[in-house]
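Quick one: co-fold with cytidine-5'-triphosphate.
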Amino acid sequence: MLSEKVTVQNRSERNRVDRENMIQECKNPIVEDDFHGFLHRNCEGTEQLRDKTILLGVTGSIAAYKIATLASMLVKQHADVHVIMTKNATNFINPITFETLTGNKCLVDTFDRNFEFQVEHVSLAKKADIALVAPASANIIGKMAHGIADDMLTTTLLACKAPILVSPAMNTNMYENLIVQDNIRILQKYGMKVITPASGYLACGDTGAGKMPEPETLFAYIEAEIACEKDLAGKKVLVTAGATQEALDPVRYLTNHSTGKMGYALAKAAVLRGAEVTLVSAPTNLEPPLSVEVVPVVSAQDMFEAVENRFDGTDILIMAAAVADYRPKEFVDHKIKKKEGDNVLELARTTDILGTLGARKRADQFICGFSMETEQLVENSRAKLEKKHLDMIAANNLRTEGAGFGTETNVVTLIRPDDMVELPIMSKLEVAHRILDHILRNK
Ligand code: CTP
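Sure, here it is.
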């Protein structure tokens, strides 16, 4: 049987091998300057939790089974995940499940002699980058609020100085009980973040508030706390995304192939780095990132109004949206019926949002545009940079493999008035981080 220490050694060995494989697999060579960011976020752009120690506290609720999915998601991001369960939680899910998923011993009893660390509850509390208690029963919330430490989870949490997230999950009446609400306020007073439970059909048969959010949402909360350095804290970032729709009649519209992925990745990267982010989004099929204010728009004119209204209070504007340059000259309020023969559609120019705002930009504001070309990428994009008074333009060629509409990756050249950086193929999230790095460096 393997000792715990060997398991840990195996994990760092596994991480080393993974890193080497990752470097081998990345198709394009990277320049020295890129190396640090590359290892942090890799070519998939999904490794922001690598080597972070995450403590999951699981208490007695039917939602406990969902934490297996969360643990697995975190392990896939190469986080070092430790699970501590209350005795009641073991009635809902077996500790072996967590041990198998995380490669770490799942702790339940404070007096278990088969431990890995010297004084387990203190060592784990010190080692943790973050702790999440989910599902958090009314019982643990009460104990945490009043400093009770009578098992492994409560003692560890009391010794933990890392950020603590709490995701309540219980029957609606229990959740709404004033005692529980008071206890939640006490947790908040002491700096813990309490995740508002979702509403819906509960296991007890009632419908209402008290449902633990899905593992993807819990993952996003963890990511928001520890994935990135908050180097954009205090900055207001406005991002646009998606393809505008220009209506012809109640049935038809003109649009383009943009899916909004690049703009959503920018909004996510900026919010993870601590910015206050507003995302003006044309219709997409994407889930907005956590903690981003979303302003839904449809047409180029809607987008212009939404961006213009917010521009004065914005530090950084990034226009990733594929805005229509033309709209049908007339909107017909009934369905246009077909006739014999061909038809001609008259088009009118839309407002150039960047052009208009670039002309009145303050010196302390930064504007980044996007440029998609099929030929003469640098010349055409540089012309847009100058004409629209931009600080930077991210140019990509639709014909380059790995760039363009709907792909998970992008290949961009960042052009500024007096320099230019060609980035290799990378995920859209990684491109987003590079764009923000350049903005911070040049702002
Ligand atoms: N853009 C804008 N308002 C428009 C059209 C485009 O603000 N009405 C922005 C886009 O969001 C992008 C940048 O301008 O950030 C460049 O868009 P692009 O369509 O590549 O350039 P255009 O200036 O429209 O030129 P062309 O279509 O001729 O390439």
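If it helps, Residues 300, 319, 321, 323, 325, 350, 352-354, 369-372, 384 surround cytidine-5'-triphosphate (CB under 6 Å).
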